[in-house]
Target: Glucose-6-phosphate 1-dehydrogenase
Amino acid sequence: MNDQINSASVIVIFGATGDLAKRKLYPSIYNLYEKGHLTDDFAVVGVARRQLSNEEFRNNVKDSIYENSSKAADSKEDSFVKHFFYQPFDVTNDESYQALKSMLENLDQQFSIPGNRIFYLAMAPEFFGTIALNLEAEGLTQTDGWKRLVIEKPFGHNLPSAKKLNEEIRQVFSEDEIYRIDHYLGKEMVQNIEVIRFANALFEPLWNNRYISNIQITSSETVGVETRGGYYEKSGALRDMVQNHILQMVALLAMEPPIKLTTEDIRNEKIKVFRSLRPVIPEEVDQYFVRGQYDAGEVNDKEVQGYREESNVDPESNTETFVAGKVMIDNFRWAGVPFYIRTGKRMATKSTKIVVEFKELPMNLYFEQQEEKGPNLLVINIQPEEGMRLHLNAKKSSPTGGTTPIQLEFNNNSLTSINTPEAYERLLYDCMKGDATNFTHWDEVALSWQFIDPISIAWANNKEEDFPNYAAGSMGPRKSEKLLEKDGFKWWPITHKGLE
Ligand SMILES: NC(=O)C1=CN([C@@H]2O[C@H](COP(=O)(O)OP(=O)(O)OC[C@H]3O[C@@H](n4cnc5c(N)ncnc54)[C@H](OP(=O)(O)O)[C@@H]3O)[C@@H](O)[C@H]2O)C=CC1
Ligand SMILES: O=C1O[C@H](COP(=O)(O)O)[C@@H](O)[C@H](O)[C@H]1O
Model:
């Protein structure tokens, strides 16, 4: 990411005083600016209900940079915040849009911007449709330049609500003007999945059901629901993490090589994976998916309360804070290979990892003792470390011979840690460039809801009597282990450092 892009645009951030804007958006735009990736002709307009002057807003933006940007010491903050403006705004009020319109027109003149607009919806999802329709009705989308809509998750609550939202925004923005954010697609090692697969002669010939026995994706968090109990009660881990981030990783791992590295070609291949997901029928949900909810426990040597004690959570809540599942992809390449996925809050470690487990050799020439033999695994470390490890077997360095498991390691953090951009930084950069490859197409969203809905409906109709069923600080309920054991596999143990 060395290029300077033509960033001539006004970026309007709806929800400018919110958590996402402060923790992710301002620091990311600042990092792009500080690294010289932006031209000087851009402006950022923050809108939210509370009354702030430009000066107060700029001070808030500076504070968020000091708190959240690794680049804050470089002291370009003063020149940076001169690009920031604030407009008190209520999304349901017509006058707000009119005031915003004239502000944007003034900024076009002040910064010589040819009418290019990025509308970034960093607000509660129930406002997304209203904002898009009002932007159109009040004439904010009729400009001489281009317009783009960046939309945060969750994109709907199920397929019907996602369709309704999509119809509303499509009245105003065409599909190629819509940038649906999935921040996992901005992570360095998630973007690296395609490169590992398609830029190495080594893996692609083995990347199929003849040589791979199963693939495991774990995204575990140590945090609980924090202040988001209200949202999480309606969402749960299935909608919060699986419908989007986890299924996106499945698609990248399973897709066929695209014809070219164009947005359309890559999306088409991902869409084919979503279309090949074996539907989980309601009667079979328990065979393929398990759910958990955390009880009180200890995380990082600190005692924490159970989910049902969190604020804004029903004391008898049936919401899952953990999901494990077996996802089958019914196509020629993957028939018979389970993709095991798991994610949860208040687990033992903060870690996202992919483990590709290769099949056993056809014949055992070397391994007289079990401990001499290691599995052949490719482990892709998404976070907190970034890199990968290949687990192989080699000769023991001893006159008595024998074999020993070894690991080949690539650690991306130690090579480029200072320059590793945050996910949002990459995605904002792509959006300003007009590259939607790492954003989700509507078809991907629709197909992933189609896969998720029967599971969430079955769970809503059947209360889990066992809840809470895992202690905070563990790796989830016992039945998550059983899901793999019945197929003859086990979760490869995960620590924040890698596999044990
Ligand atoms: N926070 C995060 O880490 C993540 C958030 N997201 C998504 O991003 C979006 C924003 O989340 P987050 O920042 O956490 O939410 P917050 O609740 O922190 O912020 C909401 C923002 O909306 C503004 N707002 C609320 N009502 C109105 C209104 N009627 N008119 C104008 N502005 C209004 C609030 O400001 P004011 O009160 O001044 O009006 C505030 O700026 C959500 O869709 C969320 O799901 C996605 C991934 C991660
Ligand atoms: O989208 C979300 O992601 C975070 C986890 O993101 P990560 O980058 O820290 O892995 C999760 O905490 C949150 O509940 C969910 O909405």
